[in-house]
Design brief:
D-Maltodextrin-Binding Protein, domain 2; cell membrane
């Protein structure tokens, strides 16, 4: 396979097959939790236009910008007297629902639920305002049962949920091989087993699955249990970049509190810069945040490879979105969606310019000015 072909089809399917499915299944569960309440604010700190900003993210390493930014107080520092209140989610649909309901104002979330949320609301509920992470997804397998990609035929491979980003990416990869699988049941030349990331390592240990196409840190947990990496999804993309996490905002909140949104974006940019400059400290900080949220820190043999496979970045890589959607249309998987206006990178570019960093492009999918 050429590099361009898998790239476009993998992401195109994540955009398309996910559309009817991701509204009910696109992450790692379905509930949200308060991650610890409100941050401490200095009594003399100056407030912005809002008393509080409510942010949401997943307790997942691919949401490391939010994990580290909150843990290290970098977000609260930029917000001054405007208090930050953070909640965590286990799935994209629940986070989109929270955004729609006003339970959160800004969220870190995957590209597929971002697209679903935008198209299903006819472009009225959210904007993508920045990027956050690329990478961190692998196909790991039992090396005793699977030696090569051809050996996947007839095997049982887990994905996190029916219709989640990794699920549709794997279904598309299967189709690229010329194999057949019913997307709903998962039955076919390969058995696609939908398994919550929390139980997938135990399923692998019990021998009920032969591998899994999963995000970090689940992939590294499986490797620690004896699995081997067969495919790193980054290798299927030119430049090895594909967005796994975006930053979205409620259009209402963006309109009413642009200064607060700008402060959050500035905090995100500075957090990514801090992560790049202090990789070991950042990794430890993210793990400490995960320990607070889950009650258990990740051991080094899982944390180290998982963290290494993720790139934290400010650019949402918007140019990929139009290509992904166009290939989906050509494949007959989707009527041409109207994604015009899904991005508003104005405030991000303002922040980047002020920080002496290059501005990023919305690939013609920005809101009309």
């Amino acid at each position: 396979m050429s590099a361009a072909r898998p790239r476009t089809f993998l992401r195109a399917l994540a955009v398309t097959a996910a559309l009817p499915l991701l509204l009910t299944a696109c992450g790692y569960g379905s509930e949200s939790t308060d991650d610890g309440g409100k941050a401490d604010v200095a009594a003399d700190a100056e407030k912005l236009s809002a008393e509080e900003v409510k942010i949401g993210y997943f307790p997942n390493l691919t949401h490391g910008t939010a994990l580290v930014g909150v843990q290290e107080g970098l977000f609260q520092k930029e917000l001054g007297g405007t208090r930050i209140k953070a909640s965590t989610f286990n799935a994209g649909p629940s986070e989109i629902e929270a955004l729609n309901a006003g339970s959160i104002d800004i969220g870190w979330i995957g590209p597929s639920p971002s697209i679903n949320g935008y198209t299903k609301s006819q472009g009225k509920n959210l904007r993508i305002i920045g990027g956050s992470a690329s990478g961190g997804v692998k196909l790991v397998v039992n090396p005793d049962r699977i030696k090569s990609e051809d050996d996947l035929k007839g095997k049982k491979i887990a994905t996190p949920q029916l219709g989640n980003t990794q699920d549709v990416a794997f279904l598309n990869w299967i189709a690229e091989q010329g194999w057949k699988v019913d997307p709903q049941s998962g039955k076919g030349d390969v058995s696609v087993v939908r398994s919550d990331n929390k139980v997938t390592p135990d399923a692998y240990k019990a021998g009920s699955i032969d591998g899994a196409w999963v995000p970090e840190p689940t992939a590294s947990k499986l490797v620690a249990g004896g699995a081997k990496v067969l495919i790193d999804e980054a290798d299927l993309w030119p430049d090895k970049k594909f967005v796994i996490t975006n930053i979205i905002v409620s259009q209402k909140f963006l309109k009413e509190h642009p200064d607060v949104v700008e402060a959050v974006l500035r905090a995100s940019v500075k957090t990514n810069e801090w992560i790049a400059a202090n990789p070991d400290k950042a990794k430890a900080s993210a793990n400490k945040a995960l320990e607070k949220l889950s009650g258990k820190a990740l051991p080094a043999e899982i944390l180290d490879p998982a963290w290494k496979s993720i790139t934290f970045l400010d650019d949402p890589l918007a140019a990929t979105l139009e290509t992904e959607a166009s290939f989906a249309v050509k494949a007959g998987l989707l009527d041409k969606p109207n994604l015009k206006g899904i991005y508003d990178l104005t405030l991000l570019n303002k922040v980047l310019k002020a920080e002496g960093k290059p501005e990023v492009d919305d690939a013609g999918l920005g809101v009309a000015r």
